[in-house]
Automatic annotation (TrEMBL), chains A, B:
<dbReference type="GO" id="GO:0030246">
    <property type="term" value="F:carbohydrate binding"/>
</dbReference>
<keyword id="KW-0328">Glycosyltransferase</keyword>
<keyword id="KW-0175">Coiled coil</keyword>
<dbReference type="GO" id="GO:0005975">
    <property type="term" value="P:carbohydrate metabolic process"/>
</dbReference>
<dbReference type="InterPro" id="IPR033432">
    <property type="entry name" value="GH94_catalytic"/>
</dbReference>
<keyword id="KW-0808">Transferase</keyword>
<feature type="coiled-coil region">
    <location>
        <begin position="505"/>
        <end position="532"/>
    </location>
</feature>
<dbReference type="Pfam" id="PF06165">
    <property type="entry name" value="GH94_b-supersand"/>
</dbReference>
<dbReference type="InterPro" id="IPR010383">
    <property type="entry name" value="Glyco_hydrolase_94_b-supersand"/>
</dbReference>
<feature type="domain" description="Glycosyl hydrolase 94 supersandwich">
    <location>
        <begin position="73"/>
        <end position="291"/>
    </location>
</feature>
<dbReference type="InterPro" id="IPR052047">
    <property type="entry name" value="GH94_Enzymes"/>
</dbReference>
<protein>
    <recommendedName>
        <fullName>Glycosyltransferase 36</fullName>
    </recommendedName>
</protein>
<dbReference type="InterPro" id="IPR008928">
    <property type="entry name" value="6-hairpin_glycosidase_sf"/>
</dbReference>
<dbReference type="InterPro" id="IPR011013">
    <property type="entry name" value="Gal_mutarotase_sf_dom"/>
</dbReference>
<feature type="domain" description="Glycosyl hydrolase 94 catalytic">
    <location>
        <begin position="310"/>
        <end position="710"/>
    </location>
</feature>
<dbReference type="InterPro" id="IPR012341">
    <property type="entry name" value="6hp_glycosidase-like_sf"/>
</dbReference>
<dbReference type="Pfam" id="PF17167">
    <property type="entry name" value="Glyco_hydro_94"/>
</dbReference>
């Protein structure tokens, strides 16, 4: 058995056991659902905070989204039992809970649906999950076909566990009028105030169908009995379900249809599953999504997804890469930008980087996000830890821990936005502050953010780290108020340089010069205090210990501290070669470049939190793809295109069975990390987090567009500077840009010295078009000589 | 198959499917473990707050102890797979996860151990759980015997799932030096402060054995594989476990011994399982509990339990009742009093009532508890919602919701303590306040608590309910500050009367008169404002609606409001008859007397929280045994001994299969509730909460001692006034009391008119001995005539 790409818009995995956690994900404006190849599912929706409508069988902890989601027999899922009423045999599609195996099996996540096709003993069952655009609801269609060549007597039993809804109140009954299993609950509360806050919640979970079930059951325990979920008592001995209810018992939505299928016959069924406030809402959802034309619903959601299709289409000698970049990568970027990861308080850096990616899909969203962000800035220039998306939202989890880097990301996102759109008008938009009645232009806001960063430094002029900065925060490096961050010094320097360029283009030479001087001086301090043993140290602790250096036992080299030294310009060519050698020797693995190494295996009290995470996992030496993307950005920035591409390419799991089995993932998204600690814990290295929330997607898309294929705005014009890997003899791409259309082909011509660029049939001088005409289609040919240009 | 009482100190259930949740519980000074007949387990220990060392497989929510604990395949448990290496067959003891059935099965919880004996296919496996007295550790002994008459080749595989320890860091390895599977974790935190708080935590869970395992596995998923827990892949095909580890994977402690057993041979094994801070602690625990004589350990724990054996032994025509009262009831009372339910902030009313029960076991503990309670009183006289047991403790969960009744319980507990011990010196002990430097005598503290209650009343002189009072709190009856409580008026009146009696005995006539006058006037107001439609209403809402009356649709009668009207004396004989009739008609069920009825099935906005709980569950119309015990107390108080006994008796599940199956419990404790709503949801009525934390135990023991067998202190003397049910022709009991020993027999003599009492061979006048001589054995014969005295 193998897993392979079916076509550009649909994957196919043909064995649920080689990558048990391989999953597809769907989302809409209000919800997200991740379903894996075996039938397990995790779904969340906004109400207004993230909530679930299908629960684990025990009281679940409220946490942020966890990586490497663990599944177990009674985990929520969407399962379809199929019983042969003559033979008495049972299987379940797609795989759990019976795990009977199948004659043929396919898990087929597509761009706008997730589908399974399972055939066993002459019965083929195809189940498809889609979502509507605006409602919180799962739309299931089930098609069951008798391919056995003889008449069959079958029971089809969808089993949707609802789980432990509430210790206060839960149960379920069948509502004949709604033709639905209605599981009711009351979200627990103990304080009176909470009661009033909870009143609006969708405390019902329901399953409705487009025709009456022959029987049903709602009590999970009654269904399972002594048989176990792999062989439920209620389905033994050809019995019909007992039409039971759940009375303060863990509910499940279980319906039964008894079907007589002639040879070759197909029967179809539609189901909807999701939360509701009350019966009226169920009735409305049923009307809108069961009593309507299925094709129209499918089209509406397809259109929603197509609307996020992105501005680039490529064709290269690497079809897996093409598929990813043309379809799955912009989809992942769109998911982030359109839903803000289904939180109400995204971390400031995440919010701005998600917006950065959205520039290439819906730049008006990027504009909105930048304006919203600066309007929550403090008058001091400090950026908050999270951006609140509604009046009621509040900072939660990690956003309650002060981090020092948020000011960096405004300049970074703004550069991308301006390069792509040329919309300089944004710079003079006015916005207020969180803690003052002042108004200031967006440009002034950003300058103030950078000035704040420049001021939050110690006696050496190095920025305090406090309780952490970017995503390798060691929250005890500087909690006493003394420790400083090497990476943040670099990132600040880089952001200042970027912003200085924008200020200069706006005619604000004074600010440009001031920031450039500050960046230059920062770079000098970086080299003075952090460069050691052929690498940049990650920080200096409260107790004045430089760490992240070669003589450390663990945490000897941190990727971000190297990447951003390349970006900021702190690293000259000599240092660049040295640090690249260190990365090659200590961080590169077959599964990507680790965030740092060796992973900490025990607490190092002066370095902090990171040592408490499991070695190889997020924040302790994983192949953290976001950091790897920064690394690729730095490599492109320093003209190391070959190496940059190899970093990007390794983020995608291969199409071969071994790679997919190793990582537990099919390549329809870049996960936030692959397990690292490759030299310490080889057994688990490379394993996917199976979490698709990550700023990696934005940076990946940006780098592919701006660097790999190299078509990037520059003031009123555009620069054409692809950095194509040597292994590609040729490639081509189309790209929309400021209303114009570019059709670009890249060819190698060994006869040529250097690079030529032909636009609309004529060679141009250099690599820049001074202006771009909206509506025009530019035909561009880049020819590359033997020695790259 | 049936379940029956083996002997007074050990139950035996012979079929794990008739009462799937039937469980035994063990505890020591620092931990509690509840294990059910199928092998599932819930364990908690103090560190210093309650924590778990075996977890569900997902991130668990932190809550107070939940009733009707739901189990599922991957729930924590202690399982012993037994594989026949010739036949390849597999079963697991005691029952889960294989559920193979057994040739003979017995679940045998005893007073100080829990034992299972399972025999299948000629292999008998006996597993026993014990605890040490002071350490947090499970002591397991396993004995496996070949009863097949031929040589056997067996693998024994204890499987102790450890579950989802932490999203931050978890894993496991085998430590050969410790001969232990050591599962490590780091309790998650995000804020620096929390790191320092967490440093002392026992973040390790380990399993060690008294001899080296042949093989082991630690990765739960690797063990289970595609086979499922009922048929783990790692145990298929006669394979040996792979000696694997868990690397940020859900860990389980799994060991394998390959045993060649001759016909008739027995092999034995000892295991210890629990949490530890570090390797050194594991080594110490191993030394203390594996490298030592098992019999000595058993004796030590037996002694600890025997130390709580209580002061009463009875012999009646009802052996089940005798067993319960002689062994299991004092054990339950002792558990509460000695561990404070393993919380650091027991609710004030629970703490004082648990202390009340402890009077009959270790009265010095009661004394301590009373002193501690008054020292946390506010200077206003108000009692806090919870009593903090350590410096670091804080009020949690329901203790953050203000309740108004806590002041009642001091007087109630004190009466029992004084009657039992005669220790009037406690009244002049001095104690401070939570919010003042003042010192006051215990007597003054209690007077002040009652004066506070007397003052917290509305314009009618009725006590405010605010966000709730006793355990049927409807937290929205009075949240606006206007609503009042009928029950609290009665309870205040009763407490004042009780306390007035104690004051008078101390010579404080002024306080006695003042409180008696207040109680009398309260009783009048109770009758004026709450008596309606032949019952006492439960309260009057903020919007001036009297509820808990006959014309209500739901919540028509509340048991507490009737019981305490009997106790306080508000109900005269006429009203008594009427309310008893209402209780009979509306609250009595075969499973006991419901707390109120009909249970609310929908929110009644003016009555509040209770309507949000599932009908029939705790706080919404359950047979809440604590309330039933109050009811029994009231019935005894008003000389309705027959009826009182029937209330008490119905709290014990019967020994017949149907009753045990219905309630899901064997009668080794009174649970806090049986499901009620008997007339509304008959299918689930009678089902046990399976939660043994309840003030019921204290009241039950008190009533049995003071009322049913009727030997109660009275000043310097003792009153002998048993209220023996007519169905008992005779009975006898022994009782220790203030150092004396009473041997009492009760006989019916139809020839007699009234009752005679003979003490040491001589008839006495009345029923009171003026003094009690410590060390003396009193032989008492109570003879009862045809018409009860």
């Amino acid at each position: 058995m193998t897993a392979f790409i079916d076509n550009g818009t649909r994957f196919r995995l043909t064995d649920p056991t080689i990558a048990p956690n391989a999953a597809g994900y769907l989302w809409n404006k209000k919800m997200m659902v991740q379903v894996n190849c075996r039938g397990y599912a995790v779904a969340q929706y906004m109400d207004p905070e993230p909530r679930k409508y299908a629960h684990v069988p025990t009281i679940a902890g409220q946490t942020f989204m966890q990586p490497e989601q663990g599944y177990f027999t009674h985990h929520p899922g969407r399962f379809f039992y199929v019983r042969d009423n003559e033979a008495g045999t049972l299987f379940s599609a797609p795989y759990e809970p019976v795990r009977a195996g199948a004659d043929t099996y396919a898990f087929e996540p597509g761009l706008s649906d997730v589908r399974w096709v399972v055939e066993k003993d002459g019965i083929r069952i195809e189940t498809t999950l889609r979502l509507p655009v605006d409602d919180v609801l799962e739309l299931w269609s089930v098609s069951i076909t008798n391919v056995s060549g003889r008449a069959r007597d079958i029971s089809l039993v969808p089993y949707f566990p609802v789980g432990y809804m509430s210790w206060m109140n839960m149960g379920g009954h069948f509502d004949a009028g709604l033709n639905a299993i209605v599981c009711t609950s009351v979200t627990p509360y103990q304080k009176v105030e909470q009661y009033f806050k909870n009143r609006h919640l969708k405390d019902i979970t329901f399953l409705s169908a487009d025709r009456k079930p022959d029987h049903f059951e709602i009590c999970q325990q009654a269904f399972e009995g002594e048989g176990g979920l792999h062989n439920p008592s209620a389905l033994q001995d050809r019995a019909d379900l007992a039409d039971g209810d759940a009375i303060y018992e863990v509910p499940a939505a279980i319906m039964q249809w008894n079907l007589k299928l002639e040879a070759g016959a197909t029967d179809k069924l539609r189901l909807v599953f999701g939360p509701a406030k009350d019966e009226a809402e169920i009735a409305r959802l049923k009307r809108d999504y069961l009593d309507t034309d299925e094709a129209a619903l499918t089209r509406a959601y397809d259109d929603y997804i197509a609307d996020g299709a992105g501005s680039l289409r490529i064709k290269t000698p690497d079809p897996e890469f093409d598929t990813f970049v043309n379809n799955w990568l912009p989809r992942q970027v769109f998911y982030h930008g359109d839903t803000n990861r289904l939180t109400t308080d995204p971390q400031t850096r995440n919010y701005l980087q998600d917006a950065l990616g959205m520039t290439f899909i819906h730049p008006e969203k990027t504009r909105e996000a930048i304006l919203r962000s600066v309007s929550q800035q403090f008058a001091s220039g400090k950026m908050p830890d999270g951006i609140l998306l509604s009046e009621e939202a509040e900072l939660k989890y990690i956003n309650q821990v002060p981090h020092t880097d948020h000011g960096v990301w405004l300049a970074v996102a703004m550069e991308v936005y301006l390069d792509e759109t040329g919309d300089r008008a944004i710079l003079s938009e006015m916005a207020g502050f969180a803690d003052s009645d002042e108004q200031a232009s967006v440009a002034d806001h950003i300058t103030r953010a950078l000035d704040f960063l420049a001021g939050a430094v110690d006696h050496r002029g190095l920025p305090f780290i406090e309780q952490g900065d970017w995503c390798d925060p060691m929250n005890m490096v500087g909690y006493k108020g003394k420790g400083v961050s090497g990476w943040l010094a670099e990132a600040s320097s880089y952001a200042m340089t970027v912003w200085a360029g924008i200020c200069r283009a706006s005619g604000d030479e004074a600010t440009a010069e001031r920031l450039e001087a500050e960046a230059k001086s920062l770079n000098e301090r970086i080299n003075t205090f952090f460069w050691k043993e052929d690498r940049y140290g990650r920080g200096i602790t409260d107790d004045d210990v430089l760490f992240g250096i070669g003589s450390d036992k663990e945490g000897r080299i941190f990727l971000n501290a190297q990447s951003w030294a390349l970006l900021s310009g702190a690293a000259d060519e000599d240092r660049k070669q040295k640090l690249l050698a260190a990365i090659s020797g200590e961080l590169d693995t077959p599964y990507g470049t680790m965030m740092f190494a060796p992973a900490y295996t025990a607490m190092r009290d002066d370095v902090g939190r990171v040592t408490q995470k499991w070695p190889g996992s997020a924040e302790n030496g994983a192949v953290y793809n976001h950091a790897a993307a920064f690394y690729a950005a730095a490599l492109y920035h320093r003209n190391e295109g070959e190496r940059a591409f190899s970093v990007l390419r390794r983020m995608l799991t291969g199409s071969n069975e071994a790679d997919i089995a190793r990582r537990g993932q099919i390549p329809l998204y870049v996960p936030n990390y692959y397990r690292g600690a490759y030299y310490q814990f080889p057994r688990t290295a490379g394993r996917s987090s199976n979490l698709f929330n990550t700023g990696t997607a934005s940076w990946y898309y940006r780098l592919v567009i701006e660097r790999l294929f190299g078509l990037k705005g520059d003031g009123e014009g555009v620069v054409i500077a692809p950095q194509i890997p040597a292994e590609w003899p040729s490639c081509s791409f189309t790209r929309t840009f400021r209303g114009a259309h570019f059709e670009v082909s890249f060819e190698r011509d060994p006869a040529l010295k250097g690079r030529t660029i032909e636009v609309d049939g004529a060679l141009i001088d250099g690599n820049r078009l001074a202006s771009v005409e909206a509506g025009h289609t530019y035909r561009v040919v880049v020819r590359e000589g033997a020695a790259k240009g």
